[in-house]
Structures are given as C-alpha cells and as structure tokens.
Amino acid sequence: MNIGIASEKSGLPAKTIRYYEDIGLLHPARTDNGYRDYSTADIHRLRFVQRSRSLGFSVDECRQLLSLYQDRERDSADVKAIAKAKLVEVDRKIAELVGLRGLLHHLVSHCHGDERPDCPIIDELAGQGMAQ
Amino acid sequence: MNIGIASEKSGLPAKTIRYYEDIGLLHPARTDNGYRDYSTADIHRLRFVQRSRSLGFSVDECRQLLSLYQDRERDSADVKAIAKAKLVEVDRKIAELVGLRGLLHHLVSHCHGDERPDCPIIDELAGQGMAQ
DNA sequence: GGTTGACCTTCCATCTACTGGAAGGTCTAT
DNA sequence: ATAGACCTTCCAGTAGATGGAAGGTCAACC
User: What average pLDDT is seen over chain B?
Assistant: First the structure.
C-alpha cells in the first residue's frame, strides 16, 4: 500500500506519516522502486497513533502506548498509569485556562471598546489596573 | 541597568529578555563595554510582555499590544478586539480539553489496572473499544 | 514513443517560544 | 593576580509537524 492510501486510511497526512517513521514509530517495508509499502498492521499502528495523539498523548507517550499495544503480555496497570497521568495533566491545564478565561472575561467586559485611548486592558497589562 | 537586574525586576529569565530583543520587542541601550543597559521604561515593557504572555497572548499578540500600549492615541476598541479573540480561543481550548477529560476519565475508570493484559484503554486506542 | 500529471523520494528550512551550552570578554573583590 | 560572578555572541536543540525544492516513477492518453 502506497503512502497516499495509508494517509487516507489512517487520517494522517503523508508528511506526518514519514515524520513518524523518521522518529521510529513504525518501519514500513519498501517496494523495489523505493516506495514505502504499508501493511494493514502498519495502518492499525498509524490509526492507533492518530487516536492517541488526538486524545492529547505526546508522541513519546504514543511510543510507550504503541509498545504496550503490541505487547500481548502487558499489564493493563501500565497502560492505566499513563492514562491517569495524562488525566491529571489535562485537569491542570483546564484549571489554568479557566482562571485565564475569568481574567480575560473581566478585562473584556470592562473595556468600553471605542475610539477613546483609555483602556483597562492595557492598564492591567501594564500593572496599573486591578490587582494581579 | 544590567540584564541580571532587568531579569529580576521583570520576572523574565535573561535568556528570554535577549530573545525578545532578537525578535524586536525592545531595543535597550548599550553601555561602553557592550553590556545591555535597561531603562525603567524598558522594564515596564518587559513586565508588560511578561503579564501578556502569562495571560496566554502569543508573542505576536504581545507585539501588537505593546505597540498599542505605547500609542497614546490608540483606540481601546483595537485592544478589546485582540482580547476578545483570545477569549474565544481560550473558550475553544477549554471545551476541547473538557471533552478530552471526559474520554480519558471514562477510559481510566473502566480499566481494571492490574497485571492482566486485557485493557479497554488499548482497545479504544486501537479502535476496538467504545465508539469514537 | 513521447508527454502529461499524479504519485513517490530525500533533504533542507520554517514555525513557536524559548532554553542550554560553549567560548570568551568584563568587572569587582580580595 | 586571580577567582567568580557577571556579561557577550553564536550555535544547537526542544515538540511536532509542515512547506517546498529537486528529482525519480508510473499509468494513461494521443
């Protein structure tokens, strides 16, 4: 299977698939003309990575998950540990963004937003506005 | 004022301050020995950028905000537009992460997490689990 | 048989926002 | 004079791709 088809089937751009090969996530065969030749197992791996990435796992975490995926003897505890760590991380990011949102919302709602130059947003960024 | 002091006063690492100069966010004077020499106005700019960055504005947005900050004739509407766009972006990110969190939480809570190899997390990532 | 166009290949550069480190100059204190 | 705490520039690396150039391959059409 050529890379174009692999791209279609996995939902990943060809560029990205080559990149994943560069960094050692998979090792497709080559045909005589030098073209990459993807097996259905390769496609499964690509889809696996695509899903993991879209769930917010880093490429390195994908590498670990992929090796667990391919290990029929794995402990589910190992997988769960990675997912739990990611969950904690996502929770932290959400809390951070919610705080940010509150601050931004406050600023936006207090700026009259017309042609006059005085602006509570600038004042705040300059450290002259509300306490930070 | 040497860069070390500027770093202390602005809360930014010296490396980062030099980087901000590289990309044209500020242009401190130089003393005879070639050392950067920061004025209090430079410190205000640095603090301004530091606060803006911590509120999630990109360096490029900081550049715009900084030029508005320094423009006594600015329209507050221009500042508000940037802040509102950022607010929308933050909202979008939060929604995405909350969705992610739900999925991860579901996966984590359904994985028994012991020494057995069967694992709903892997199943899901492989596309064999719950619908995606 | 020639040519067009859609593929594929590699390699190199670019993006964001820094950060680390090497090699070397300067300043201050002892 | 020398230690060590600064400062300088420059180069490389991080994550995770993405864009583009230069060139090879393949299938179809005239």
Answer: 90
Which pTM value belongs to this model?
0.84
Q: Which residue in chain B is spatially nearest to A42 when comparing CA positions? A: B126
In this prediction, residue B128 has a pLDDT band, given cuts at 50, 70 and 90, of: low
Q: At what angle do helices A14-22 and A40-54 cross, to 10 degrees?
A: 100
- How many whole angstroms separate alpha carbon A15 and alpha carbon A64? 22
Token couple for B74? 């600015």
Average pLDDT over chain A, rounded to an integer: 90
Is nucleic acid strand C under 7 Å from A9's C-beta? no
CB-nearest partner of A118 from B68, B76, B83: B76
Q: What distance in Å separates the CA atoms of residue A66 and residue A25, rounded to the nearest whole number?
A: 8
Burial profile B71-96: b = 16 or more Cβ within 10 angstroms, e = fewer:
eeebbbebbbebbbebbeebeebbee
Largest CA distance in chain B: 70
A70 touches strand C (CB under 7 A): no
Q: What is the pLDDT of residue A60?
A: 93
User: Protein B2 CA to nucleic acid D29 C1', in Å?
Assistant: 72
Instruction: Tell me the residues of chain B between 29 and 48 that have a Cβ less than 8 Å away from chain A.
Output: 44, 47-48
- The pLDDT value recorded for residue A50 is 94
DSSP letter for each residue of B85-98? HHHHHHHHHHHHHH
